[in-house]
Amino acid sequence: MLRHLFIKNFALIDELSIEFKSGLNIITGETGAGKSILIGALAMVLGDRAKPEVVRKDANKAIIEAIIESGNNKAVNELLKENQIDCYDELIIRREISAKGQSRCFINDSPVTLSVLKQVGDYSIDLHGQHDHQSLLHTETHIQLLDDFGGLGGLLEDYKTKYDELRAAKIRAEELSNKEQSLREKKNLFEFQLNEITSVDPKPDEAEELEKEQLILENAEKLYNDTAWIHDILYASDDSVYSLLVQARNRLEDLSRIDDSFSDCASDAYSAHTLVDEINKFVQRYNSSIDFNSERLEEIRQRLTALNTLQKKYGGSIQEVLNYKHIIESELSLAENFEEEIEKSNEKISEFQRGLSVLCERLSQKRQELSKRLSGMIVQELQKLGIANCLFDVRFETQPNPEGDIIIKNERYTATANGHDRVEFLISTNKGEHPKPLAKVASGGEISRIMLALKTVLAKSERLPILVFDEIDTGISGKIAQVVGFSLKRLSRYHQIISITHLPQIAALADIHFMVLKEIQNEHTVSKVRALSAKEHQEEVARILSGSEVTQAALKSAQELISASEQENPLF
Hints:
By secondary structure, this protein is of the alpha+beta class.
């Protein structure tokens, strides 16, 4: 829902804020008051091309900001995540346009490109009328609308899954094909590298163990001399630590017999004596085991040199060398079995193509069936809206391709993410004319009513939650105007509707009614907008009925129209 629109220094608007509501938001006002300026500002914040002339005279820049409640809009949320923009329940879109025509765009206070701003706008608001921001006029949206109308989401999801599998398989096949020549060129190199690594035959953690052993052998003399010295001072000499500790222990035991407070010290001396004895035994054993093996030392040095050479060439560690060995073994195995691998890859592609073709044909059949029902419903809706002699057609096109992935009845077609169909809506609003693409329908009012009919039929499946209609009532009056109004009212059950109108029959149905008016401030003309109370709503409907002068008769007629609108609705 579009909750808030702020506009500053835009055309005739000095500064204004509008708080929109859910349901049917109606905007009225005298001709030239600035109603369409509101829609122009909204279109601008949704990504329309900026023009310097939209900036109010004597202002440096125009600012338009829209706050949209978008918590459930998955397309918007995914787009924000893709562009690393903070995602909240409220979406704040801001556009600043300088007097020189330069533009800056922001989403949730993050600077973005105009392209991203426009994408977010396209996913959030559908604007119909004088501005080229109409999703239903874009042919690429028609197939999605048809699928949504028929509830084909599950079948389409199955198709897309198979489509993605096929693409992945074809990428793998292409990689294999590209790799074949590359492997042929690298085969001799890989064989040499594998032979070099295999001849050394490195083991995990081997280098670390060898370096420890090397350190010991290189320091054998120091180890021998130092352990001999430790043995001497601890045990062998006349005044050894061991001998002195025995004497101290004995005296402490004598003293403890006189004063038992020496008992703990005597016990500690005994423990120290035992500990020195254990240290001495270890040192003696170690001393006797020292190996002055120069041949082993040289062998270790040569082995470490070989391992270091491998590490420098194939990785920073032995584990990385072993990982590289595994890779080239796999590559060589592939090179030796290339034909078999390519055959497996092609079989997988054929399997996915068959599955994709079955799903595609089913999708296409469902769409053909749905198109007839959709056409009939839209024609009925258009007749209610005053376009009596109309034809609506859904045109299907396919693109034959001898190398396509879709195979239906021995014919190949190009596969897309939506199948092999290209869908376009065609319409004729005049008797005797052949249906033409929607984008070629000339009348703005007619386009709006066609859009309204489409939206009414597709209401529950249409993904855009906010619909804006600029002068949808062009060229209609009387009963048809009332029917258009009721159609808008019904559509507002599923969407927030914002509509500019000149007709009392439509204005009377407003859930909230805004009035646009012009004022002179400081010798400048400015446009203002305000929400009307129930009494003011009645007065504005009366003004539209009777003209600028509101009479009691007009007020009475307006009240009757509002009451009748509340009590009777032929479309409900």
